[in-house]
Amino acid sequence: MIKTDKKLTSVSAACALAVISFAHTAHAVEYDIYGKAEVQIAKTDNGTMRFAKEGTQIDAPFSRIGIKGKHGLSDSLNVVFKYEVQVKGFENDDLGDPFRARNTYLGLAGSFGEVVIGRNDTRFKYSEGKIDNFNETQADIAQLLPGQARIGDTITYTSKSFAGAQLSLTYAPKDDRISGKDGFAATVMYGDRNLKNEHYYLALSHVDSLNNITATRIAAAWLLGNVQLGAIIQRSETAELGDKSGNGYVLSASYKLDKWLPKVQFVRDESGIHHIGTKTGQQWTAGVDYLFDKQTTGYLFYSDLDLDTKSDSSLALGLKYKF
């Protein structure tokens, strides 16, 4: 006959219950710490370009760190969150302000889709997908094209995908807007904006009264073997910034050759919204990436910006690491 200590058995049972409970809680939370570290040496003629200063500069273009994840509330409902900041501490002149807010939000996800509240890319900006070959550089399409905004105090809804189509919305209440008006953006997407699961992407997007901009765009991208092509056609207008309006265009192309990725891009805008004092602006950019692996990229590009009354050019060499 085996004798058992009832007190010891009770303690063991309590410990086992605690372990099971902790394990359940731990499995309910999923999160990733991620980021991008980037350094760039750029020679820019006169500093007319956004995101670039005159002369030779060492920068850390939009380097960042963040945490994102979800917590299971039930089999069909999750809390989702993201906290992300731009890290500017690489640069000597940013010691007093090393961080800047990026996408930061909290919300719920389930069979209805996902709803988050906080700072987020507007769904108009989101519609660009991977069309911008020089994203987050001085050749970014935001140099000329209006509507590439990330704003706070917004509600973002993203539906589930239905037969390859997806709806996403941004809403901003008027009390939190400079214009004093409600603002919204709506995007319908078809295909895969990252061109990974599908080799095509198409989006129709409209923004109204966000950052004083009203605009409509069609965005499309195709992956044909090693060739990627992209295009955006956009109509923009604003009454708050001097009653300006006009069309904008983006054309981009790249070709993957082993570890090399040559790429080109043309951007033109005729609204004059982003280039104050001039009506029309256009920018040509050509460059090449060297893909060390999935996380590490070296790059070289040259960009030329032409406005009605002034021009600028920039040559940049950089290294980018994503984790």
UniProtKB/TrEMBL annotation:
Domain of life according to the entry: Bacteria
InterPro entries named among the record's database cross-references: Gram-neg_bact_OMP (IPR050298), Gram_neg_porin_domain (IPR033900), Porin_dom_sf (IPR023614), Porin_Gram-ve (IPR001702)
Range of residues in the leader sequence: 1-28
Domain Porin residue range list: 16-308
UniProt KW keywords: Cell outer membrane, Ion transport, Membrane, Porin, Signal, Transmembrane, Transmembrane beta strand, Transport
Location relative to the cell: Cell outer membrane
Pfam name, any one: Porin_4
Membrane topology, record value: Multi-pass membrane protein
Subunit structure: Homotrimer.
This protein's name: Porin
Record organism: Pseudoalteromonas haloplanktis (Alteromonas haloplanktis)
